[in-house]
C-alpha cells in the first residue's frame, strides 16, 4: 500500500474522530476581547495605551467584537512569517487552515504581488489595489506595498517583535478612514525590551520531503531611567516546492470515461500537426491535401506533456527584516516613542520551460516540379519548448519588495487627564515583478527564415535562442506615504456609569505612486519613464464614550475625509454595550465604511493580451466563437480576441453599510462564551467582467466590441500601456472581438454570518488547563458580478470554519493540541463529467511541546526549546478530475506534515 493510499484510507476515520473530539472536548481559540493594553510596558500607565477599535484611552471597543492572539500563541504556532500568524483566526478566510500566501498562479496571472488578509471572505479582494481589511502597526498606517497595489503585506513586520495582534471584525472607517470595510487588524509590537535574545527555527516536511524553511533573529535592547531602546534583525529562507513534489497537484485532465491525459503542447517534444500534399498530376501546382489522396491529409505530431508538475506549488522565498524602537520620557508631561522598520523580500516562482506556437506554414509548390506521386510536407501550427536547446536558461518569475518606514509619536499630558498624541509616518516602498516570456515576433521570424526548426529546437544557434528568450514582462512600482495625525482625548463630565470621554483629531495623508512597465529585453525597463500620481486626503474625526449607567455604555464616532481626486466622504458609527447582570454583556453596532481608489488607481494602467483561436467563452474552434445575443457580430472577422486588463480610469469608492449584535458571558471564573450576528452590504464593489458568464453580453454590452475597424483598434491600442507591442503582433482584421475586463465598480455583495466562541481555563494539581472552541458560520453570500446576481453561499469556500486547542502548562513544560476545521463547500468548477462536486471538510491537527529551562539551568539559563508538528495526520487536499487545466486539481491547501524545531535564548 502506498503512503497516499494509506493516508486516504484513514481520512474518513480521522474526520469522525475530529468531529467527536469537537463535541466532547471544548476547543480553544485566540483570546476573545483581550485588551491590547495588557501589553503596556512595565512601569507605564496601562490607561495610556490605546487599543484597536477606539481612540479613547482606558476603554475597549464598544459594540464590536475583538479577537486577539497573544505572545504565547505566537510562540506556539512557530510561524516563519507574520502572514502565517493570521491562520489562527477563522474569520480571516484566505489565511485560515490553508494557503497563507497568494496562489502562485494569481501572482503571474493577475500580478498579485503581495499578501492581503481578507476578513469575512469579501469578494474581489485581489482585484483592488487597496484593501478591504485595514492593517495597522501599533494603531498607525504604514507605507503601502505592491506592484499596481497599495496595501500592507503583514510580512513587513517580523514575528520576533510582535507582542500580539488584535482584530476588530467590524467596519472601522469612522475611526481610521479608508480600507476598514471588513475590519481592522492591528499588530502590537514590543513596548520595551532589555537584554539580548536569540531565536532560531527550522522546519522540514515529511509529506513533501523537499520542503524546508528556517529563520533566525536577534533582538537587543537597553533600558535607562527614562526610556528604552531595542533593535531586532530577522532573516528567513525557504525553498520552493513544485506541484510535482506533491501527491495532489496534478496536470492531468480526464475525458468522460475517466481516461487521463495531458493537454499542454509547448513541450520538449513538439506537438502540433503536419500537412502532407500529394502530387497528382504533371503540372507544378497539381498538389492536394485531401485525405482521399494517397498519403495526404493532416496528421498529428507528438504528445502533450505535463507542464503543471514543473510549476510552483509554494514559491522560494528569502526575507530580511530590521525593526527598532525608542521610548524616551522627554519631560514630566512629554513622552516620545519612535519605531522604524526595514524589510526586503524576494520570491522566485519556478516555471515550466518557455515555449512557442508557430503559425501554420503556407504551402508553396516546389520549384523543381517533382514527379506525380511525390509527398510534400509542411508544418501546421506547431508548439514546442526551448528547453532542449543548451543555450536556453529557464529563468523563474520574480516578485519582491523593499520597504522602510519611520513612525514617531509624541504624547503630551496637558492636565485634567487629557492627553494629546501627535503621530507621523513617513516611508517608501519599491516593488518589482518580472515574468520571463518569449519575443513572439522574433520567434516567428526565426522559424520563417529557417533559423529555428520547431522539430529540432536543439539545433538552433545560441544567438537565435537568446534573441528570442531575452524577453520579459516587467513592472516596477514605487510608493511613498507621509501621514500626520493628532488626537486629543480625555474626560468631559461625570455620568452615573463613569466619566463621559471624548477624542477628537485631525489627519493628513500624502500618497505618491509611480509605476512603469515594459515588454522587452531583460533590464530594458530601466529606460522606461515612470507614470506618476499624487493624491492627498485631509480628515477630521471624533469619538465619544458615554457610560450612561453602570449597565449601559454608548459610543459614537464620526469621520470626514476629503480626497484631492474623487471628493469627500463622511462615515458614522454607533455602538452600545448593555450589561443586565454582571456576567453578561450584550453589544451591537452600526456603521458605514469605504475603500477609496488609491494613487495607483489614478494611473489607470491598462494592458492587453490576445486569445487567438480560443475566445474568452472557452471555445477552441474559431468557428465556434461565442454567439452575441444582441447580434452585433456581423462581419465574423478575425480569429483573435483582444482582452483588456488592468484598471479603468475614474474609479469610485467601494462603500459598505454593516451592523452586528452579539453577547459575551462569563458566568463563572475561567469560563467564557459568546457569539454575534453580522451583516455587510458592499456597494460599488470593484471587479472585472467575467466573459464566461454568457448573460454579461447583455447586462454589460458596452464591454464587448465587435467588428473592430482600423481606427477603433488604433484608439484602443493608444489607451493601453503595452499597445505598441500588441500592434506589432496583430492587425485589426485579425481581431474578432475586444473584451474589456479592466477593473471597475461593477459589483456588489451582501455577506452575513454568525461568530461564536467558548473557552475555559482552570488551575489543577498538574498545572493550568485550557479548553475552548471558536469559529464562524456564513449564512448569506449574495454577489452581483457584472450585472449578474447569484447566491454564492458555500460555493468555492466553506460556510463554516472553526479552530481550537486543548492546552496544558505547568511552568517549565507546556503542550497544546490544535484542531483547525474548514467545512464542506461546492466546487467552483465542474469535473470531467460536467458536474459540480462537493468538497468534503478539511481538518488538520497540530501539536506543540515546549520546555523553558528558566533560571535554573546553569549555562542554559534563559533557554527554551519547542517542537511543533503541523498536520500530524498528513491530511491531504481533495482532488477532482478536471476536463481542462483552467482550474486546480485540488481543493484546500497544505504542506502536509511539517516538523518544526525551535530554540530561544535570552541573555
TrEMBL record:
Residues 65-184 form the TonB-dependent receptor plug domain. It holds the Pfam family Plug. Residues 1-33 form the signal peptide. Transmembrane segments: none annotated. Keywords: Cell outer membrane, Membrane, Signal, TonB box, Transmembrane, Transmembrane beta strand, Transport. The keyword Transmembrane applies. It is a multi-pass membrane protein. Residues 365-872 form the TonB-dependent receptor-like beta-barrel domain. It is found in: Cell outer membrane. InterPro entries: Beta-barrel_TonB (IPR000531), Beta-barrel_TonB_sf (IPR036942), Plug_dom (IPR012910), Plug_dom_sf (IPR037066), TonB-dep_rcpt-like (IPR039426). The keyword rRNA processing does not apply. Belongs to the TonB-dependent receptor family. This is TonB-dependent receptor. The lineage of its organism: Bacteria, Pseudomonadati, Pseudomonadota, Alphaproteobacteria, Sphingomonadales.
Amino acid at each position: 500500500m502506498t503512503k497516499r493510499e494509506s493516508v486516504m484510507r484513514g481520512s474518513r476515520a480521522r474526520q469522525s474522530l475530529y468531529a467527536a473530539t469537537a463535541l466532547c472536548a471544548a476547543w480553544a481559540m485566540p483570546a476573545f476581547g483581550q485588551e491590547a493594553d495588557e501589553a503596556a510596558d512595565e512601569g507605564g500607565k496601562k490607561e495610556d495605551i490605546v487599543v484597536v477599535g477606539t481612540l479613547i484611552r482606558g476603554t475597549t471597543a464598544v459594540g464590536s467584537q475583538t479577537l486577539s492572539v497573544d505572545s504565547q500563541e505566537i510562540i506556539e504556532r512557530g510561524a516563519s512569517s507574520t502572514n502565517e500568524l493570521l491562520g489562527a483566526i477563522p474569520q480571516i478566510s484566505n489565511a485560515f487552515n490553508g494557503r497563507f500566501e497568494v496562489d502562485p498562479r494569481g501572482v503571474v496571472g493577475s500580478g498579485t504581488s503581495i499578501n492581503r488578509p481578507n476578513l469575512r471572505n469579501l469578494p474581489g479582494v485581489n482585484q483592488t489595489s487597496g484593501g478591504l481589511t485595514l492593517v495597522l502597526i501599533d494603531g498607525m498606517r504604514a507605507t503601502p506595498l505592491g506592484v499596481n497595489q497599495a496595501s500592507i503585506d503583514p510580512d513587513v513586520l517580523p514575528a520576533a517583535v510582535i507582542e500580539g495582534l488584535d482584530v476588530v471584525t467590524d467596519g472601522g472607517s469612522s475611526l481610521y478612514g479608508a480600507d476598514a470595510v471588513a475590519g481592522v487588524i492591528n499588530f502590537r509590537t514590543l513596548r520595551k525590551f532589555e537584554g539580548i535574545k536569540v531565536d532560531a527555527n527550522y522546519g522540514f516536511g515529511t509529506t513533501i520531503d523537499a520542503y524546508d524553511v528556517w529563520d533566525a533573529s536577534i533582538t537587543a535592547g537597553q533600558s535607562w531611567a527614562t526610556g528604552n531602546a531595542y533593535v531586532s534583525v530577522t532573516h528567513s529562507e525557504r525553498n520552493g516546492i513544485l506541484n510535482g513534489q506533491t501527491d495532489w497537484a496534478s496536470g492531468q485532465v480526464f475525458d468522460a470515461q475517466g481516461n487521463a491525459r495531458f493537454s499542454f503542447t509547448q513541450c520538449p517534444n513538439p506537438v502540433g500537426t503536419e500537412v502532407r500534399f500529394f502530387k497528382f498530376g504533371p503540372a507544378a501546382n497539381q498538389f492536394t491535401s485531401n485525405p482521399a489522396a494517397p498519403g495526404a491529409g493532416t496528421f498529428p505530431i507528438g504528445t502533450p506533456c505535463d507542464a503543471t508538475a514543473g510549476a510552483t506549488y509554494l514559491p522560494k522565498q528569502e526575507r530580511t527584516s530590521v525593526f527598532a524602537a525608542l521610548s524616551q520620557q522627554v519631560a514630566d508631561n512629554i513622552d516620545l516613542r519612535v519605531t522604524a522598520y526595514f524589510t526586503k523580500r524576494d520570491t522566485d516562482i519556478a516555471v515550466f520551460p518557455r515555449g512557442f506556437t508557430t503559425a501554420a506554414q503556407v504551402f508553396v509548390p516546389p520549384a523543381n516540379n517533382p514527379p506525380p506521386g511525390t509527398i510534400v510536407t509542411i508544418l501546421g501550427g506547431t508548439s514546442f519548448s526551448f528547453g532542449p536547446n543548451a543555450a536556453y536558461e529557464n529563468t523563474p518569475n520574480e516578485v519582491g519588495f523593499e520597504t522602510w518606514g519611520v513612525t514617531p509619536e509624541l504624547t503630551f499630558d496637558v492636565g485634567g487627564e487629557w492627553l494629546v498624541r501627535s503621530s507621523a509616518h513617513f516611508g517608501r516602498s519599491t516593488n518589482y515583478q518580472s515574468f520571463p516570456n518569449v519575443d513572439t515576433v522574433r520567434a516567428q521570424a526565426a522559424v520563417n527564415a529557417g533559423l529555428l526548426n520547431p522539430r529540432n529546437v536543439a539545433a538552433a544557434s545560441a544567438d537565435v535562442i537568446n534573441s528570442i528568450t531575452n524577453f520579459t514582462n516587467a513592472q516596477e512600482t514605487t510608493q511613498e506615504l507621509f501621514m500626520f495625525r493628532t488626537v486629543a482625548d480625555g474626560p468631559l463630565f461625570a455620568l452615573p456609569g463613569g466619566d463621559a470621554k471624548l477624542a477628537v483629531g485631525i489627519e493628513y495623508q500624502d500618497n505618491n505612486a509611480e509605476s512603469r512597465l515594459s515588454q522587452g529585453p531583460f533590464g530594458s525597463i530601466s529606460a522606461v519613464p515612470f507614470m506618476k500620481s499624487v493624491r492627498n486626503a485631509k480628515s477630521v474625526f471624533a469619538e465619544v464614550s458615554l457610560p450612561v449607567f453602570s449597565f449601559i455604555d454608548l459610543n459614537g464616532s464620526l469621520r470626514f475625509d476629503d480626497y484631492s481626486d474623487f471628493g469627500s466622504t463622511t462615515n458614522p458609527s454607533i455602538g452600545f454595550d448593555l450589561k443586565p447582570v454582571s456576567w453578561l454583556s450584550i453589544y451591537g453596532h452600526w456603521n458605514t465604511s469605504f475603500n477609496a481608489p488609491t494613487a495607483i488607481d489614478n494611473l489607470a494602467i491598462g494592458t492587453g493580451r490576445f486569445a487567438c483561436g480560443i475566445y474568452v467563452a472557452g471555445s477552441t474552434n474559431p468557428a465556434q466563437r461565442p454567439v452575441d445575443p444582441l447580434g452585433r457580430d456581423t462581419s465574423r472577422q478575425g480569429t483573435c480576441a483582444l482582452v483588456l486588463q488592468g484598471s479603468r480610469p475614474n474609479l469610485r469608492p467601494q462603500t459598505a453599510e454593516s451592523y452586528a449584535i452579539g453577547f459575551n458571558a462569563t458566568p463563572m471564573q475561567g469560563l467564557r462564551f459568546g457569539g454575534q450576528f453580522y451583516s455587510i452590504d458592499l456597494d460599488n464593489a470593484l471587479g472585472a467582467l467575467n466573459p464566461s458568464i454568457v448573460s454579461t453580453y447583455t447586462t454589460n454590452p458596452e464591454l464587448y466590441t465587435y467588428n473592430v475597424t482600423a481606427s477603433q483598434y488604433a484608439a484602443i491600442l493608444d489607451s493601453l500601456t503595452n499597445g505598441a507591442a500588441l500592434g506589432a503582433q496583430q492587425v485589426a482584421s485579425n481581431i474578432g472581438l475586444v473584451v474589456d475586463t479592466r477593473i471597475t465598480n461593477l459589483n456588489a455583495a451582501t455577506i452575513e454570518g454568525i461568530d461564536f466562541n467558548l473557552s475555559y481555563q482552570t488551575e489543577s494539581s498538574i498545572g493550568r488547563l485550557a479548553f475552548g472552541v471558536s469559529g464562524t458560520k456564513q449564512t448569506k453570500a449574495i454577489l452581483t458580478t457584472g450585472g449578474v446576481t447569484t447566491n454564492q453561499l458555500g460555493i468555492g469556500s466553506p460556510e463554516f470554519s472553526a479552530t481550537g486547542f486543548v492546552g496544558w502548562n505547568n511552568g517549565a513544560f507546556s503542550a497544546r493540541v490544535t484542531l483547525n476545521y474548514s467545512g464542506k463547500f461546492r466546487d467552483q468548477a465542474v469535473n470531467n463529467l460536467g458536474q459540480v462536486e462537493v468538497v468534503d471538510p478539511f481538518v488538520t491537527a497540530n501539536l506543540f511541546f515546549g520546555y523553558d529551562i528558566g533560571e535554573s539551568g546553569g549555562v542554559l539559563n534563559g533557554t527554551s526549546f519547542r517542537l511543533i508538528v503541523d498536520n500530524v495526520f498528513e491530511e491531504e487536499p481533495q482532488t477532482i478530475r478536471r476536463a481542462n487545466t483552467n482550474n486546480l486539481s485540488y481543493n484546500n491547501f497544505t504542506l502536509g506534515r511539517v516538523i518544526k524545531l525551535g530554540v530561544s535564548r535570552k541573555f
